[in-house]
Amino acid sequence: MRATVYLIVGLPGAGKTTHAKQLELEAPALRLTTDEWQILLFDYENPEDRRDLVEGKLIEIGMRTAQLGTNVILDFGFWSKDERTALRWIAAAVGARCQVVYLPIDAEEQRQRIMHRFTTTPDQTFTISDAELAEWRTVFEPPDQAELDGTHLAPAPPDHPTWSAWASHRWPSLPELAENPVT
Length: 183
What we know:
The protein is of the alpha/beta class. It has eight helices and four strands; from the N terminus they run E-H-E-H-H-E-H-E-H-H-H-H. The protein has helices at 16-26, 34-42, 48-67, 81-93, 107-120, 130-139, 145-149, 163-170; strands at 4-9, 30-33, 72-77, 97-102. Strands 2-3-1-4 form a four-stranded parallel sheet, with helices on both faces.
């Protein structure tokens, strides 16, 4: 049976990690959550210049794990359609299924959840300003029905020969797949 790579999509405060932890037990699956690694590696700092490097290595580990037959949860947020499309393509290339799991949230509930999380578990989160939340809402691209259904993979952008090449550019620590990955 082929493994499934779950892409947990949503803005901060949407309940992504809570949902990922439930799915981890139900699927069962290896859960990889960027924030947990960032907190551990960078002592509660959130250096944006390192986030892409951490995510790239987690994606590499996750895709290899899926290739070996274990379900994987990538709990990163995945704000852009290109990110999700690239990972759907890579999952298929390593012989895994991919499922986009979208957790929408309105602005007011998001702010309340983030404030609550920071006051109750400050050692498990980063501070987020209202200005950051507003800005992030403008750049977030919610998945469409085709993504949620797992249908139609758009071709890679013209400046990249494959989605794997695009992903290696997006996440510099993620190696590009060989022509024919071993499955």
